[in-house]
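Put briefly, the fold is written as integer tokens. The lines below illustrate.
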Amino acid sequence: MSSLLERKLVLVTRRTRLEELLARHHTAAQAKFYVEHLGADFGEYQREHETYLDARRTTLEALVAHGRYQVIDRAFLPNFLFAPQDLVLALGQDGVVANTMKYLDGQPLVGLNPDPSRYDGILLPFRPGELAALLADLVADRRAFKDVTMAKAVLSDRQVLYAVNDLFIGQKSHTSARYEIRHGKRAETQSSSGIIVSTGLGSTAWMRSIVTGSTAIAGAVLHRKGDADYRPLAWNADRLQFAVREPFPSKTSQTALSFGEIKQREALKLRSLMPENGVIFSDGIEADFLEFNSGAEATISVAERRGKLVV
């Protein structure tokens, strides 16, 4: 067997919005009635669905020609075991790439843009039609890749969760999260809407919106104009950023430790004061979480492993 055929390709796909509607409403007619009743264009859902199916067919043709491949939906990623030599492909959007990368341990990841007219595709440098010509180089590791720093949360019972974009620590609901926070020699008790810990890749997303919103509110209250001088981190930056969302000052909670950086070989330490519904999840996947209830301790740091995004 040739070296090309010895290596397995794993394709990660996602359900389209139309498929999610069908799962909820059971028939296309019912889904169409629901969407159009709300004044939306059902045809847009159909066009998006058909474009994604075309991209998936083109991708599968290249994989069939390769010989060894497997296709999984991203919903099954938390329970899927990747082999060390697997080459992994994610058929967009960007979120599918991030969702996939957090479960990898050094395997190269290829982002495929199924619909360039809809998705900017920062993490999707390739199109499905290019895959057949790229396969030989991809399987032989002759393509360059970008290092992507990841974050890691470790509980005192040794449960671990990785993040490519960001970690959220807080409550499942909209109620206040209560916890003790320690960073270096500084420590305090807080009540807030939760903590975001961002990687370099995630610093252009949720973290940026937090900084932008906070700056705009502060400017309006203080009657000062000006944009936030916020500079996102590089994807391979050896540090993380953390921000406390809406910290509340009171007799039992403080707000001084609301933003900072976690450098390599440093850690953010947290102890939960929440009797129930405390969670830690990453990259927006709320279904894959760690429970973070009273007494639980979490250590947040730069992960020992990095993502490898093929370019």
Observations:
- The two ends are 28 Å apart (CA to CA).
- The longest strand covers residues 297-310.
- The chain has a mean pLDDT of 92.
